[in-house]
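Hi Y.,

Following your request, here is the sequence exactly as I used it, all 306 residues.
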Amino acid sequence: MGIDTATIKGTPVCTLHTSPLGVRFWDKALQTVITSGLNVVAYPEANVEQRMEGISNPSGVFVFHNLSGLQDFEYRGGERSWQQLDPWTETPDQKAFTIEVRDRMGRFIPFLLKVKIPQRGLYLWEQRSAASPPEPAVPFVPLFSAATRTVVPGMAVLRADLWDPQTERPAAHALIEASYDGAPLAQGVADSEGRVLIIFPFPEPARQPLSLSPVSPPRSPGIIPLRDQEWKIDLRAFYRSDSHLAAMPDLKALCEQPAGMLWQDKTLNEEMDHTLLQFGKESILRTKNGAEKLPVLYLTSAGSPP
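Below is the corresponding structure, written out as tokens. Let me know if you'd prefer a different format.
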């Protein structure tokens, strides 16, 4: 919000500028606000051609100006008091807009976000995913890592090329959740080719138990060397088999997908619900074909296999 002042015939005149939308983006992998490298565009749902790009301010908030149909809300002026200039003194009519988010640096999955604007303050994202318990609305929009992203050293990594054997195409835009000891660790979203990358900090190192051997002196419990550490990571998948139809996925639709099933074997008899993660090594998830592993991980939608 900003104010311009001028004097016309000795009378002070003010013009109040109010942004109808402010959005902040959150890197789920590194747990930080992303302030640069994003191309964030807003346009009315009824007119894709009236596109306006958001500008990131020093706080990492992307703000929008001159959006179609919102000029009367955004620019208010004249010989009026501050209270009369404030557009929030009355509830404004909201309009349906689409926010298109792309990353110029290839770090994140592109997506669409449907919003009603103007909105007061920062846009609040409400997580309504079957993959996680309900969360309070937060003043940022999540970003999911793209498979092409460069991984920061020291982070745990799960990768997979997801394939739907029923539609015989990549399982585009599926959501995969990794958890450890009952607590969610991270989520990943597949790109249009079914490639998914999940990045998260390694869990706490495990401790070796107290030695009770009668033939050796008691050994105090301690940390197992990092090179020998491994963790059982639980996996859950959420997937709609028609999700590939969207050129750019809708973020809310991504997070509201029904449960899917990952498969250990090509015959779809054994579900994959976990993997072993070793310290310092990427875990590549694949479906087995007998004694061999396929280059892909099978994923089917709810109710599968047939």
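Residues 251-255 form the longest helix (5 residues).

Thanks again,
Q.
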